[in-house]
Design brief:
Layout: H1 2-9, E1 14-18, E2 21-30, E3 33-40, E4 47-55, H2 62-69, H3 79-82, E5 87-91
Antiparallel strand pairs: 1-2, 1-5, 2-3, 3-4
């Protein structure tokens, strides 16, 4: 988990699987603002399930990383609560 936090801090993306579904945790920029988001990549209906503003472009503040990882977007559970059931498949 600490390695994942460090990678997110430096604006890397992580793809992971949880209960047969692929998700992407990534920084995104929109209208001059940066966000940290989690996407549910279900092919028929991809959707953003967590989103926190991270301010201007650059490193992602730990408070934003904590907020996204603690958002209850996995059937009422947060990433922090399901981390032992998650398989990180790609980091880019």
């Amino acid at each position: 988990m600490s390695e994942l936090r460090q990678l997110l801090f430096h604006c890397h993306d992580a793809e992971f699987e949880y209960r047969g579904t692929t998700y992407v945790l990534q920084p995104e920029a929109d209208a001059g603002k940066q966000y940290l988001v989690i996407w549910d990549c279900t092919p028929s209906l991809p959707k953003c399930i967590a989103k926190q503003e991270a301010g201007a472009e650059g490193d992602i503040p730990q408070s934003v990383i904590d907020a996204v990882l603690n958002e209850k977007c996995f059937d009422g559970k947060s990433f922090a609560e399901i981390e032992k059931e998650v398989t990180v498949t790609v980091i880019f």
